[in-house]
Batch of 4 targets.
Target 1
Amino acid sequence: MATQTSEITLLSTITCPDCGHAAAETMPTDACQWFYECKSCGTVMKPKPGDCCVYCSYGTVPCPPIQEGNSCCG
Ligand SMILES: [Zn+2]
């Protein structure tokens, strides 16, 4: 199935690597989020090397530009 779909998922569940707390967040379509503070333990997550944003590293769904096949932040 190589059909390109333009449907973008904006809701991603981000999971804290420290405490395991998961929160559903709506991703911005026009910007990347580099930092995300865990609502449970306060840990500030940053993208892993090679990832462009915290959603790509810790979310269930990569960020919208990646879903569209673009790189967002270089
Ligand atoms: Zn946490």
Target 2
Amino acid sequence: MILETFPVGPLQCNCTILGDEEAGEAIVIDPGDEVGRIHSRLTELGLKLKQILVTHAHIDHVGGALRLKRLTGAPILLNQNDLPLLKMMEMQAGWLGVATPETAPPDESLTDGLLVGLDRYPAEVLHTPGHTQGSVCLHFAPLKMLIAGDTLFAGSIGRTDLPGGNSQQIIDSIQTRLLVLSDETKVLPGHGPATTIGDERRSNPFLQAQ
Ligand SMILES: [Zn+2]
């Protein structure tokens, strides 16, 4: 198994490549920027890209998805509840003062319960609205690993002050969909260092009973 997570772009979004050398296939999660680097790495590894999975439609996570699709032919998957945000790309680029990346509607919606990923390393989509209405986490149960997007961070949670954000909803999503996973589940957030479900249940200040 190949698992590489590295920050891309000005907001340092964690992009992840998960690959299966035997099958010669990979998925990329959240190619927000630096598409040339992501594509070179896939080429170096000799892996064919099967899916581009996007946890939510903020520019720092989705910005490079269409370019990567054009380079590889892989489909883009994104929850349909984030389509309004996808259409606001020019405004999002304005927030950051960067050029507006070209985007296109996803090839398929990351709906709750959908199985995505690689044959040997499948993931279940957990719809976890709150940071945005279409935010999802990807639970790779056989790997005891969660890709958390901007829903859960080490010691923090996603902001809810942008369009589509809802502070009670993100807490509900984390409590009902994420904290029910086993303590040892490794969490790879959309920004910053990795953590575990157990560590966040014990010490995340946003998740303690009031
Ligand atoms: Zn975000």
Target 3
Amino acid sequence: MPGGPEALEGIEAAREAKWERPTFAGQLFLGRVFTSMLFPYAVQSEQDRQVGDAFCAELETFLKKNVDPDEIDRTGEMPAAVIQGLAKMGCFGMKIPKEYGGLGLSQVNYNRAIMMIGSYCGSTSVWLSAHQSIGVPQPLKMFGTPEQKKKYLPRMAAGAVSAFALTEPDVGSDPANMATTATPVEEGAYYLISGQKLWCTNGPVAEVMVVMAKTPERTIGGKARKQITAFIVERNMPGVEVVHRCDFMGLKGIQNGLLKFTNVKVPKENIIWGLGRGLKVALMTLNTGRLTLPAGCVGASKRCLQITRDWAQKRKQWGGPIGRHEAVASKIGWMASHHFATESIVWLCSAWADRGDFDIRIEAAMAKLFGSEMVWSIVDHTLQIRGGRGYETAASLKGRGEQPIPVERIYRDMRINLIIEGTSEIMRLFIAREALDPHLQLAFDMILPGRPMRQRIRAAVRSVGFYSLWYPPLWLPRFSSGCPKEVPPRLRGQWRYVEGASRRLARALFHQMVKHQQKLEKRQILLFRLVDIGVDLFAMACSISRATMLHQQGGTENSVDLAELFCRYARRRIESQFDQLSRPEDRGAYRVAQDLLDGEYIWLETGLVDY
Ligand SMILES: Cc1cc2nc3c(=O)[nH]c(=O)nc-3n(C[C@H](O)[C@H](O)[C@H](O)COP(=O)(O)OP(=O)(O)OC[C@H]3O[C@@H](n4cnc5c(N)ncnc54)[C@H](O)[C@@H]3O)c2cc1C
């Protein structure tokens, strides 16, 4: 959504235009709740579970024996023996099909493994996930030629590390404007890649990487269009240089760097999926790849719950365990219920990814957005509950004879999740764009400049036909709910709320479209509120579905308590967003921000030490 009509057209070209499979979250924004997609809660098969159980047991033993997360954090180095051991276990080929030497794990089992590693050592999980969620294996699996798969996948399954190079010093969230070029030579048999790639995870040690570069523009529909192409680049190709290894506030053990490419000669056979399809490769890879990051977040938040449970019972202040004081208890209740909701989203979407019968691009983006934001709050609450000890390093705690509980490290490691693989802001814009798609598909020909009058009229007629049938029922009361009979009684009202609020959301989105028309894309805060309502509704639906399954399996009310509590929190947030989708302070804040940027409030900065 950012940018003008030209940028909009550029993003259009890169995104997956068609919806060939059903979308649950997309329908929520249209006022429809596809109950049958959510009940029963999708889980992995028993056979797949056994594969995952065996692998995770082996992994756990390896981690406990060989990986010291605090030592990795302190030294900033991942021991070679750890990488070799992980490679030997097949961890670099978890998602690579067996026919290419990988373990061929399902998305659920892969995410279970990353969840477990993420609960123990953030750096180790990033080594593996950068390699196979966004690095070479995933795009090759999806778009590679048989030759490319045969050449690269077995190597990577055996432990050849890979990376994904998109970001540049001047280009972060807006990759369409990248500067790295790939110039065809020898009649297009080769390309010379030149440019810089920043913050490339695994980049300094990768043997193979996906590099995004601009290839010559093409004329489409009478207009010159930028082309971005994905190339497989080998580290030992002349002209590839690691300029700098980056060091961050957390994830100290990862290898991440600024890479320079100077006339790197790459054969055309190394193009993934075709010229000009690079951004599409990146976006579609991330549509599923994005599920791994929240799985890692779930691991960290499980660890936080464990730390909190232990500490809030053990630590006594003012006459009792701190967990019995209401202010602390309310934090713990919030943490447990929001952790439950995050897990409910992650495992449902992972199972959907394996089944492949639903389009999960919106759900995966919601999982990433919600998972990263929830874990950040959960870690923050954990730090607060641990008090001074939360702020103290594990080494210092150990040094004075206390248990080295690494909340300080987890805090530093987790912050980046709100930035990588799409910042929270970009995720909200992405979800808004996809949610608006059914409307834009109808209205695109009316909105975009330069469309012939006949096309505009046809679009207008199409729109009238659709909206006259779709809009009025959004106001009609429903006498029967689609709530499945197995939903426990305490959650039935919550489910009915999801149904009603979804229709309200669809109306609100439509009204704002009519009111702001093309300018809606500039009303980011308004759009973000609508997106947040959709995300909370999806989280409610997933939580109710999972609690229903757990309730049926074990007959316990535990999961119902968690789902009910989450729904109460979510409803309060949703009501507050609906109450005032546009607020006077939005305009006020924008004005103050612009004045501040223009130096009008420079007086606020007096008293600083200049550097
Ligand atoms: C540890 C680490 C690992 C990384 N790994 C990789 C990797 O392996 N490969 C790779 O290619 N990249 C990687 N990155 C880069 C990462 O993906 C980018 O940092 C991210 O895409 C954001 O880009 P940026 O930092 O340049 O922020 P910018 O794009 O400059 O954005 C700055 C701020 O402005 C906001 N913003 C930007 N545009 C808009 C808009 N239109 N509307 C509203 N808000 C907006 C952003 O949300 C953000 O808050 C990594 C970065 C780090 C720190």
Target 4
Amino acid sequence: MTIHMMNCFTCNARIPRGLQSGTSSLLVETDQGLVLVDTGLGADEYVHRSFVLELTRIVMIAPLDPEEAAVRQVVRLGYKPEDVRHIVLTHMHFDHAGGLPDFPWAKVHVHRCEYEAFTGRIHRWTDLAYIRRHIAHGPDWVFYDATGEKWYDFDAIRLPFQPEMWLIPLFGHTAGHCGVAIRDGGRWLFQASDAASFAENAPLWLVRFALGPHQPRLRQFAAAHPEVQLMMGHMELGRFEENKS
Ligand SMILES: [Zn+2]
């Protein structure tokens, strides 16, 4: 079973200059076909840029290379787009779910609270990053609610795939934001997505404001569990190179 780590949206800081980051998606070979964890920007975003993307480009430098779209990368890895049978979303912001229309046949797995936040009224400023047209094709949804299960000491919901995968509710950045843990042989890959920042020196008040309350616990957990590789929704570009095999 192979797990590919892909950068599906390069987004570089204006300040400090030189801080280059990518948006992570995982392509996982499972017993149920390919599972894509977050889609990054969709191919259409490069043609019809959303208002939110234009806003993002005021504060960040986004080169906008259409070759970064997950659907293009899946093909370059030697698969067919139709091989992606399932998509698991950490949350439904445009930079994580914008590629849904590129895989209209895939079942889309998401926490029910996240879907309700996406389709409901705007409650918080981060809800502005939801773009309705990303689900206009009517995905085949699978919704998840709390089950009382645990992964380590995190509340968790088992996903129906082998290798073992868990949805880990980490609400805060959005109303239904989740991490995803994937067994990788004797190790774990823990995609904490937008519940943690890769910028180690970012002030904690700012991290709490933008990403929610989980970062200190996640960092402590990763330090105590060397068998767990913690990753984030946005990471230094170099980390994507490290993981290329
Ligand atoms: Zn987000």
